């Protein structure tokens, strides 16, 4: 197992476009978390899944953000009608209830 | 008030010094993670603990569940320890959200 994988690693888009990020967790990890991190700041919680169920979504997220984990394995995070304020590193982490593993992140730049 | 508070926010020390980073939280938890993030790097989990104390090399983490407090200690600090250290409590059963602390930026000067 190669750890938590995130794609794409870097996405540059124009304001108003939609973007989608994918996270492949470690096999059999039932918990999957999405976080957002801006430069010089700590990670902010976005949402998390227990298997395919999305258990909590941050109030920070507007309706433009949606996340899915359809089969309880990989997850996608979609941002619609991107804004410059969405520029950040989007981090994914997974766990089986014990140790936590983070992906390298997907950096979004909105021009 | 944040659910998780860390202190200090920034710490600069000389190589070899003993380092302590503190974390206080207000939520009920099942466990707590200490995480490390090097500048421009990814996040690595150092410890997960739910009681007592754990040691890994020069790093020691302690937690007092009753007092809702955890500490991370680094003995014989080294410049390569320079990073941001984050405590992240794991919510209690049924609410396993991972909440991040504010982070402590540690700089070790040779």
Describe this structure in words.
The complex is a heterodimer of chains A (111) and B (110). Chain A contains no helices and 11 strands. In chain A, the strands form 2 sheets. In chain A, strands 2, 4, 5, 6, 9, 10 and 11 form a 7-stranded mixed sheet that branches. Chain A has a 4-stranded antiparallel sheet with strand order 1-3-8-7, with no helix packed on it. Chain A is globular and about 40 Å long. Helix content of chain A is 0%, strand content 51%. In chain A, a hairpin with a 4-residue loop joins β9 (88-95) and β10. Chain A has 111 residues and is mostly beta strands. Chain B has 110 residues and is mainly β. In chain B, β6 and β7 form a beta hairpin. Chain B is globular and about 45 Å long. Chain B starts with a strand and ends with a strand. The relative contact order of chain B is 0.35. The mean pLDDT of chain B is 90. The interface between A and B is medium-sized, with 22 and 19 residues.
**Residue runs with pLDDT of under 50 for 5 or more positions of chain A:** none
Strand content of chain B: over 45%
Mean pLDDT of chain B: 90
**Strand residues, percent of chain A:** over 45%
Oligomer: heterodimer
SSE topology string of chain B: EEEEEEEEEE
Q: What is the CA–CA distance across the termini of chain A? A: 36 Å
Q: Which sequence of strands runs across the widest sheet of chain B?
A: 1-3-8-7-6
Percent helix of chain B? under 10%
Q: What level of helicity do the residues of chain A show?
A: under 10%
What average pLDDT do the residues of chain A reach? Answer: 92
**Please, how many helices of chain A?**
0
Task: Give me the Rg of chain B, rounded.
Answer: 13 Å
What is the strand tally of chain B? 10
